[in-house]
Amino acid sequence: MIKVNKYRTHSCGELRIDHVGTKVKVSGFIENMRDHGGVIFVDLRDQFGMIQLVSNDNSMFSELTKESNICVSGEVVKRSEEMINPKLETGEIEILVNEIEVLGKSKNVLPFEIKESTDVIEDLRLKYRYLDLRNKKVKDNILFRSDVLSFLRNKMNSLGFTEVQTPILTASSPEGARDYIVPSRKHKGKFYALPQAPQIFKELLMAAGFDKYYQIAPCFRDEDGRKDRSPGEFYQLDFEMAYATQEDVFEIGEEVLSETFKKFSKKEVITPFPRITYQEAMLKYGTDKPDLRNPLEIVDLTDFFKNITFPPFINNSVRGIKVENLSTKPNSWFNDLNDYAINNGLKGLGYIKVNDDLSFNGPIAKFLSSEDCQQLISNLNLKPQSVLFFIGDKEEVVSKLAGTIRTALGEKLELIDDSRFKFCYIIDFPMYEYNQEEGKYIFSHNPFSMPQGGLEALENQKIEDIKAYQYDIVCNGIELSSGAVRNHQPEIMEKAFALAGYDKEVLETKFPSLYNAFHYGAPPHAGMAPGLDRMIMLLREEPNIREVIAFPMNNNAQDLMMGAPTEVSEQQLREVHIKVR
RNA sequence: GGUUCCAUAGUGUAGCGGUUAACACGUCUGCCUGUCACGCAGAAGAUCGCGGGUUCAAGUCCCGUUGGAACCGCCA
Predict the structure, then answer these.
(1) What is the ipTM of this complex?
(2) Strands A49-55 and A275-277, how do they pair?
(3) A270 touches A553 (CB < 8 A)
(4) Proximity of residue A271 CB to strand B below 7 A
(5) Gap from A122 CA to B7 C1', in Å?
(6) Structural domain boundaries, residue A126
(7) Cβ of A557 < 7 Å from strand B?
(8) What distance in Å separates the CA atoms of residue A118 and residue A14, rounded to the nearest whole number?
(9) Is the shortest CB-to-strand distance from A104 to strand B under 7 Å?
(10) Could you tell me the pTM of the whole model?
(11) Final residue of a structural domain among A361, A386, A416
């Protein structure tokens, strides 16, 4: 594990009963000191573990402070039976100290206690991240991340993928997230941009004849953070395959992710990953990133309510969510849920309770005739004590609102089985979607996806019906990956862009490399890019992505430790031809 | 950009109109030869984020502001 040198013969964690009698030298951090007058105990910590030092001369440690770094020479001695500490891997032995050298002294008052750092307010942890990372739990996340990275690299290599590094300083891309831009010194008024993803480069690698590419790729996006979204930068396992179909990518994606999750977690990983169309996901789960651990499903009741005069639902779409064994909850429970619904954009949350005799009560029951009731019972297989919730609103928003209620019910009723990873592929994303603000159709995901049906579909199908070979991988409600079969034919690109209102010139000027490259005989290709940070976050069951990043920025895209972003000198600004107003 | 919540010794919290702002951990001093969340005795340590207002009286109530977090927007 370690190299023997003047600082140490062993790590703190590796010493065992077999070492009794040997002279050793160890270095590490002072985790704790317990002075008993005639005898003093010191816990010494390094990355590999902890060992207890003991001395009958407490003056040896009198000048020392906790968290100082010291080098200790001594002899490994056996602890008597009753002194063994079973909580410590080195608990059967201790080091009887001969000599101490102070390698680095710590201030006696720390910004926070290392052992309790995860309970400390996050600004402070991030400002003193090097101290926070001394905490075993925090450090273990980063060590774990290293193991996952190593596994992923081995896996991709063994599958025949070639790791290629692509530029960090590149050109701004007009679509998508805001770019981080870097001013050019040599070219006045011009800027580099940090890549939002290596998308264009990996496609160019395909055009260059590389068969399978991957990279643990940094991605930079100037967008606001979330607890599962690191602002500024994050990493993806980016890969792309030539002469590959959507199925080929799915095979690799499932193999890599399921093996990684099986290896690095005790939770059950359900394979094969089910395929759910975007349309079905929006209807059944009210989101394109469904948590399949939640057993509740949404049903479409729009047609059913066509003949029923419940005023709020007239001319609206209606969704239902059936929950069994719920009618005995007190009214206050339903009122709380209704309040939650209203706070989350619903106008109200109607429901019916199914009585033991299969009659209904509840706020909406009186609007339903007995035939209506019969129809609902048989269509939805309603059982006594079930509750059927109704979500009614405009077609554009009703699915999402129903999804909000589905999630809330799943959480409130603790229906989510936390012992599993439930992956799925969301497939058949629409190529375009109508944008109210711009009053036109825009690309709903990636403008470089191949439309299903190719040129023929673009020419003949209604624009809202055109689907792309565009897919996501979702795990436990978290979007882990996007991907697509790419559009590699200039004519199809031209037509695809034309439908979004862009002429050929846009392709030529905004995406010259890709567009030109595809005029020289590119292979069909497809790929995806699972988010590495999110994978680690899921595997470690961390609620916040910053917990799995060594030096994260805060939610406001600041590095509190480095002070970034910082002002720069006038001279630096002059050199890059920038004037700050 | 919007909404909600939060801000009190080094750290984490309590205090919700009325003496000297409390507790735990940490720090410092002293005692202690077997602890490992050591123990015991003592001490230091707080412009209660900042500004204004209400009040006889504000850490506490109100308004503003700053900073943080979560959510919405945004994230091809």
Answers:
(1) 0.93
(2) unpaired
(3) no
(4) no
(5) 13
(6) 119-264+531-581
(7) no
(8) 26
(9) no
(10) 0.94
(11) A416
